[in-house]
Amino acid sequence: MIRIAPGDPIYVMLGRQPVTMEDIERYRRLLGLDQPIYIQYLLYLQRMAVGDWGRSIASKEPVLPLLLDKFVATIKLAVFTVAFASVIGILIGLICVMKRGSIIDSLFRITSSIGFSMPTFWLGLVLMYIFALWLRLLPAIGGGGIEHLILPALTLAIWASGWTARVTRASMLEILNSDHVVAAKAKGLPQSLIIYRHVFRNALIPVYTTIGLQLGSLLGGAFITETVFSYPGLGWLIITHIFMRDYPVVQGGILLAGTAFCLVNLVVDILYAFVDPRVRYEKERE
Hints:
mainly alpha; MetI-like fold; 13 helices; 0% strand
């Protein structure tokens, strides 16, 4: 699709230096851009089969080391975000169940709905204005130390924690109406013990799946948030090189992002059997 977009990577590569049409055609043949798109695609697959991800048109660097360097930054952002969002989201969901039907429950439900409904690019700019320009507590853009992680991670965590809180609350309320919880109440067990032992632990199974999906999405590249904060991760790299029409970097970046998402979801599915004993039980019955 990027090859359909307007622009020519040859002009990006040559910059402002004076060139002739012969030079442009020569570079086009060197890069294989004179071939039909389907031929370029087959040649790309052939090189990928032997581990050759190509070289960046803009910087002449090998694509794979460039992608892995930025992917490490994205991993840090994703892990930091998911850890923060999971704690906050589960805590909010637990409070909503403990105080269900109260003003606190309604307030947290509205807050969580607003959290995952707000556009991340707008939320990122608001947080940047408050903490970087107004309070001057955190850097607005760039990467490096942990202080550069806080604002982009907080932006993503507000979205993720809102979704986690709603899943936690819905799952716990569903289990509260199950037979074994009714039996525990009939025995006169304290509400706190019922919620922790019989409700909360069972309710974490769909929450675990939600957290895994969030991690996979973030490892695939938080394109908008990384671009807003100029955070040097995989999403920022892909967006930057899209404007440069740097085909090898964009193709390799999307391939890496998609692979990371699929692998995380595969691991989540495998670990699901260890989290939920019923999965192993059904497999043994089969």
